[in-house]
Automatic annotation (TrEMBL):
It holds the Pfam family Acetyltransf_10. InterPro entries: Acyl_CoA_acyltransferase, GNAT_dom. It comes from Lacimicrobium alkaliphilum. Coiled coil: none annotated. Gene3D superfamilies: 3.40.630.30. This is N-acetyltransferase domain-containing protein. One of its GO terms (molecular function) is acyltransferase activity, transferring groups other than amino-acyl groups. Residues 3-141 form the N-acetyltransferase domain. It comes from the Bacteria.
Length: 152
């Protein structure tokens, strides 16, 4: 799978970002549209991942404070190499901004996976749009992704 990564801002890629996130979060996960889109979008750096045909298949954002979020990957494209490319791009942005650590608000089912990547829980579990979540933090240099063997 040949993927292309684009670093974009909200104003230049709003249409593409909105389409992807509505498909994943609003339609598939049933998160209310007014919860999904917030003021953080305007200040965050966004990443778009496109497939071989140039179709947007994944997105994520990182805020100036280093919070990684709004990770949306189209069903059928949720493969390790997509997540690896997405997180690599987001961490590159964090490094370029001089951030020492990043955080993420993950679903409880994801806590163990993020711990394996260098994150540790901070604070209590809380509810967000009806989903129990845990805030997790990771030093950028401690973050790791499993090696992915790309086959052609």
């Amino acid at each position: 799978m040949s993927l292309t990564t684009k670093n974009v801002d909200w104003m230049s890629a709003r249409k593409e970002l909105t389409k992807l996130r509505e498909k994943v979060f609003v339609c598939e996960w049933r998160i209310p549209k007014d919860v999904e889109f917030d003021q953080q979008d305007h200040n965050a750096c966004h990443v778009l991942i496109c497939d071989e045909q140039g179709e947007e298949i994944a997105t994520g954002r990182i805020t100036p404070a280093g919070e990684i979020g709004r990770i949306a990957v189209i069903n059928g494209c949720r493969k390790p190499e997509v997540y690896q490319q997405l997180f690599s791009a987001l961490l590159s942005i964090a490094r370029a901004q001089g951030l020492e650590s990043v955080s993420i608000q993950c679903e409880l089912e994801g806590v163990n996976d993020y711990q394996k990547r260098g994150f540790h829980p901070v604070g209590a579990v809380y509810m967000d749009a009806g989903i129990p979540r845990q805030r997790m933090v990771c030093n950028i240099e401690a973050f790791s992704l499993p090696k992915v063997e790309l086959t052609h």
